[in-house]
UniProtKB/TrEMBL annotation:
InterPro entries tied to this protein: NAD(P)-bd_dom_sf (IPR036291), SDR_fam (IPR002347)
Species, as recorded: Siminovitchia terrae (Bacillus terrae)
Gene (name only): fabG_2
Protein name per UniProt: Beta-ketoacyl-ACP reductase
Family: Belongs to the short-chain dehydrogenases/reductases (SDR) family.
NCBIfam families reported for this sequence: PRK07231.1
Superkingdom, natural source: Bacteria
């Protein structure tokens, strides 16, 4: 018996990257996974790969910015699967970096639309069914950027902070229906989103990470799977940082490293 046998999961932005890895992990634990994404070809390929490894999954094209499309997609999933146990609000983009005073309004709105409005629309649509079944696990994708406020990414940081607010508030609103709402805060994880950062700073980031490497998609998927499983039943309104300790390191550590004998 696998941990998620008989459960149904929806993952947004699941055609590639972290979302795809979460789908693979959840289906490996027995869940039927609905892979959703704006990208049809890559999304269908993800489903095909899950089938090839013995998992159960299907694809639906979904732009999380479209509230009506979110409702009809979630309704269709419930009609087809008969339950919705897990929702992972993962869809996202990084946006282009710019100093805040030079950032375009369009870019700002689009970032918040995908991350914040998209997560809200999906949460609301899935919660309707989770309340009926008195069970649900909702996982929202925040970021370490919600703690460290990455320079040049005001839109991204604002969106990821907002996702924490959404997580904490909805955790309280939905708790009496046995629905938990938690967040993940990945640091720098190897994906298309971080290609350009890693191209210039991979060595520096690895060296500044206590666990000594760049995070993998699987590292985030493992944490998501824990939050999605019955094992996390007494956790709600929290966020798990998946960063190998990166946030802990500061300039003083470099000074201390020079001062402390290496045998200590
Ligand atoms: N990679 C990292 O280091 C990192 C760190 C912290 C947080 N995150 C977050 O993790 C999530 C996934 O990131 P990733 O690294 O896998 O990126 P990615 O670019 O590989 O994947 C993002 C997916 O989201 C989809 N998407 C984009 N806009 C969408 C929309 N409007 N509707 C539906 N799907 C849409 C894309 O098509 C893509 O498949 C994002 O929310 C990101 O902010 C990533």
């Amino acid at each position: 018996m696998k941990k998620l046998d008989g459960q149904t999961a929806i993952v947004t932005g699941a055609a590639r990257g972290i979302g795809k890895a979460i789908c693979e992990k959840l289906s490996g634990e027995g869940a039927f996974v609905w892979v959703t994404d704006i990208q049809k070809d890559e999304g269908e390929k993800t489903v095909q790969e899950i089938h090839e490894s013995g998992g159960k999954a299907d694809f639906l094209q979904l732009d999380v910015r479209d509230a009506d499309q979110v409702i009809s997609t979630v309704d269709l999933i419930y009609k087809s699967s008969g339950r919705i146990d897990i929702l992972v609000n993962n869809a996202g983009i990084s946006g282009n970096p710019a100093p805040v005073d030079l950032m375009s309004n369009e870019e700002w709105k689009d970032l918040l639309d995908i991350h914040v409005n998209g997560s809200f629309y999906c949460l609301k649509a899935a919660a309707k069914y989770m309340k009926m079944q008195n069970y649900g696990r909702i996982i929202n994708m925040s970021s370490l950027a919600s703690e460290t406020s990455l320079q040049g990414f005001a839109h991204y940081a604002a969106a990821k902070y907002a996702i924490l607010g959404l997580t904490e508030t909805s955790a309280k609103d939905l708790a009496s229906y046995n629905i938990t709402v938690n967040a993940l805060k990945p640091g720098i994880i190897r994906s298309t989103l971080t290609d350009s950062i890693l191209a210039v700073a991979e060595e520096r980031i690895s060296a500044s990470t206590p666990l000594g490497k760049i995070g993998s998609l699987e590292d985030v998927a493992n944490a998501a799977c824990f939050l999605a499983s019955p094992d996390s039943r007494f956790l709600t309104g929290i966020s798990i940082i998946v960063d190998g300790g990166f946030r802990l390191v500061n300039e003083m550590d470099k000074v201390m490293n020079e001062m402390i004998p290496s045998s200590i």
